[in-house]
Amino acid sequence: SHYVQPMCTPTRGSFMTGRYALRLGFQIGVISTTTRDHLPMTERTLAQELQAAGYRTGLFGKWHLGNSNWKHLPNQRGFDVYAGFYGGGMDF
């Protein structure tokens, strides 16, 4: 089955975890870079699963899943390499 949200954070969270946005608490909208909201630490990401299987992982572009603490950042959530923005609305 395939389902997406009309905003980036809910869709991104669903893609990264395989869970519905509602289960992640992302049904309202996007995560602001000025809040403490983040992808729940109880959820494993696709990148974490790939790392566990021996793959090297990278993310290039927008994270937009929380950045209020170092443990919420992409390099702590399964990405070996990250280059991009933590929030949205950026011009590339």
Characteristic key phrases:
single chain, 23% helix, two-stranded parallel ribbon, 92 residues, alpha+beta, 2 strands, 3 helices, globular
Could you explain the architecture of this structure?
By secondary structure, the protein is of the alpha+beta class. Helices cover 23% and strands 11% of the residues. The protein has 3 helices and 2 strands, in the order αααββ. A two-stranded parallel sheet has the order 1-2. The model has no long low-confidence stretch (mean pLDDT 89).
Short description:
The protein has helices at residues 8-17, 21-24, 46-52; strands at residues 58-62, 81-85. The chain is of the alpha+beta class and 92 residues long.
Alpha-carbon distance between the two ends: 32 Å
Write the H/E string, N to C: HHHEE
Shape by Cα distribution: globular
| Biggest β-sheet description | 2 strands, parallel
Specify the helix fraction band: 10-25%
Number of strands: 2
Average pLDDT figure? 89
Taken as a percent bin, the fraction of beta residues is: 5-15%
Sheet/helix structural class: alpha+beta
**Could you list the spans in which at least 5 consecutive residues all have pLDDT below 50?**
none
- The radius of gyration is 13 Å
- The neighbouring-strand order within the major sheet is 1-2
Number of helices: 3
